Amino acid sequence: MITGTLRRFAGFFAVAVLTLMFLAAVPLSPWFWLAAAAGGWLTVLGVYDIMQSRHSILRNYPVLGHMRFLFEGIRPEIRQYLIESDVEEEPFSRDSRAIVYQRAKGVEDKRPFGTRERVYEAGYTWLTHSVQPLHLANSDFRVTIGGPSCRVPYDASLYNISAMSFGALSANAIEALNRGAKMGGFAHDTGEGGISRYHRAGGGDLIYEIGSGYFGCRNPDGSFSTERFAEQAASDQVKMVEIKLSQGAKPGHGGMLPASKISPEIAEARGVPMGEDCVSPPSHSAFTTPAGLMEFIATLREHSGGKPVGFKLCIGHRREFMCMVKAMIETGIAPDFIVVDGKEGGTGAAPLEFANHVGMPLTEGLTFVHNTLRGAGLRDQIRIGAAGKLISAFDIARAFALGADWANSARGFMFALGCIQAQSCHTNRCPVGVATQDKLRQRALYVPDKAERVARFHRNTMKALAEMAGAAGLEDPRNFQPRHFMQRGPDGEMVEGSEAWGYLPEGFLIAGEGGDADYLKRWARASASSFAPPD
Predict the structure, then answer these.
(1) pTM of the model
(2) pLDDT tens figures, 146-197
(3) Per-residue CA distances from 374 to 127, 171, 367, 380, 511 (Å)
(4) Which ranges of 106-196 would DSSP assign to H, the alpha helix?
(5) Are 322 and 523 in contact (CB under 8 A)?
(6) For residue 285, what are the contacts with CB-CB under 8 A and spacing of at least 6?
(7) What is the gyration radius of the CA atoms in the chain, in angstroms?
(8) pLDDT by residue (tens digit) across 460-515?
(9) What homologous superfamily does CATH list for 142-523?
(10) Residue 142 and residue 99: Cα distance in Å, rounded?
C-alpha cells in the first residue's frame, strides 16, 4: 500500500524535492530562483489537487493527473482522425460516455455538425418523430411494481441503478450512489453482495438482490436462511427483492472472492467468516425446479411483508424461461417483476469467452420475454425491467418499445461517479476510487460531490427521455411502440420496428395456435416440474 501511494504521488514528491534543491542552490546562481519558483508553483498545485473534491484523478495523482486533462483537450481532433482514417475505436461509444459526464456535471451536452453515426450501415436505428411534438413539463415518470399478491407495491422511477455489489465497488462509491438515489428519488440495486453499512448510510431506496451465495441471508453452511432474510427485508429502505438467476456479463458462471480480499466490512455485509474464500455457486440451492422457483418467490414475498419480489436473468435456453412461465400458471404464483439482463452488461471480471459469447443480447432477450408473457396471458400483471448498456435516453426509449416498463443502468451511473474505464477493476488499483477496497485510493472519490453528480445524471437523462417522448408525440415514454422506430436492414433497406421486434398476440401460447410457430414448439416442450429437456 505504501509503495502504491509513493507511486501515485511520485510527481508531487518529485517537484517538492526539486523545489527544495533549487532553493538550496540559489547561492550558486540567482537563476535557480526561477526554477525554485516554478517548482514551488507545481508543489502548491499538488497540495491543491490533494485537497480539492471535484476531480478523483487529481486526488489520487496530484500534478501528474493534469496530463489526462491535457489529452482530453485534444481528444476531439484525435477522434476525427480515427473516423477519417476508418480506424476502429474502442467497443464502447465515446459519445455515450461523454453524454454521461456532461449530464452528471450539469454542463452543455449539445454537439455541432449533426449525427456521428454511419446512417447507411446495417443495424442503424432511428426514432420516427411527429410533426406535432409535445412539450412534457414533468419528467419524473413512475411505474407501479406489484402484482395481485403484493401487499406493498413500489412506485419506481423509470431509470434506476443496476446491481453492483459492495466489494466490487468501493465503500465511497456505494455510499455516493445511494445518496444520489435518495436525492433523485430513484432506486439502487444492492448487487448480490448483501446490504452494507454504506447502502444504509445514504438512506436511498434499495432493491435487495439475492444471488446463489445468499449473502446477508445465509446459514453458516451457505444455504438460504429465512430468518436472516426477514431481518434484512424488514428495513424501510428495502423496497423490492430480486433473485439473481444470472447476469449478462457472465451468465451461468459462479464466482469466488478470495479470503485475502475479504475485509471485516465485506464479511459483515455478506455474513461470511473472515479467513475463508467466499464462494458464489453457479446455481441456487434453495430450488431446483421451475415450480420450486415460484415457491421460493412466495416465501420471499411472505417474509418480506408483502414487498414486490421478482428475478433477474440473461436469457439462455429459451425453453427454460418458458418452463418458469408454465410454473407461474400451474402454481398460481407469479413474480411481481422480471429484469432482463442483456449479455452487453458489464462486470468487474469475467472470462473473455463468457463476456463475448455466452448469453442473449438485450434486444432479443427482452423481445422474447415480453412476447412469452403476452402469449401466456401474464404480461399485464408482471412488470419488466431492462438492463444492458442503457446509457442514453434513446437507449431507454428503445427498451420501452421492446416491452420494458423501466430501465436499469450500472455503467451510466459508474461514469457519473467518475469511472474512466481504466479496466483495472479486478486489480484493486482503480485510479479514481470506484472499484477498489484500498482506503487511500477510495479517498479520491469525494462522496458529497459524486452523489450530486449521480442525481444530476439521472435528472438530466429523464429530461432528455421526456424530450424524446414529446418529439414522437407521446405523453409518456412507456407509450413507445416498435412502430416508433426504424432500422437499416442488411441490404440497406428500411425495416419498421414492428416488423423487426413485433408484439405477438395475447394468449396465443395458451390457445396453442396463432402467434409464432417457434414459440409454440418450445412451449410444448416446456415443463413446470423440471428445467431438464424432455426425452
Answers:
(1) 0.86
(2) 999 999 999 999 999 999 999 889 999 999 999 999 999 999 999 999 999 9
(3) 24, 41, 11, 8, 12
(4) 171-184
(5) yes
(6) 212, 222, 223, 224
(7) 25
(8) 999 999 999 999 999 999 999 999 999 998 888 999 999 999 999 999 999 999 88
(9) Aldolase class I (3.20.20.70)
(10) 23
